[in-house]
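Sequence in, structure out. Go.
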Amino acid sequence: MTKTEVLRRITESGILPVIRADSAEEAKALVDAIAAGGIKTIEITMTVPGAVELIAELSNDADLLVGAGTVLDAETARRCVDAGARFIISPATNLETIRYCDEVSVAVMPGALTPTEIVTAWDSGADVVKVFPVSAMGGPNYLRALKAPLPHIKLIPTGGVNIENAADYIRAGAEAVGVGGELVNLNALRRGDTASITSAAKAYIAAIRT
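Output:
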């Protein structure tokens, strides 16, 4: 799958679940529940124990598009790409990571918040800029304000995205939205309530399509 195809699939999905868990087993169970609801684009964060090995395992599933999140340096990016990650996401902008991903033609989405940071990340070679934490800056209205002078920059807002505002971010110009605990619900998983996670995934899809 080419980088262009990866980016197209993320945009078509509109949703990137940000998987955080205390074990690889919990993370895998979350992925399964979310995928059962129809969301097949998955971000496995480096905060998950054994994250790289989990990426390798999940990448064997042809239905899933698996990427790595919370990638803070080029060496970690290399390990994730070697394991099968199709995209690399970070909460910050690391130029060496962007350069590495460009060299191996893997989609890279560094994090930024202010207009200066966002433009710097984009000009440095980002394929998409992760706006994080977007809720702290005003949510969809902030994204809309950014897109007015920067319509050419592709943005994925993360941090505070929920079922009530997900569609508003898309209307404001987001390529997709990164969703954490509102969808990746560890408490529900630990109660054995995977059905509610699957239902939430379906609800997000419906909201984004609307």
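Check: The radius of gyration is 16 Å. The mean pLDDT is 97.
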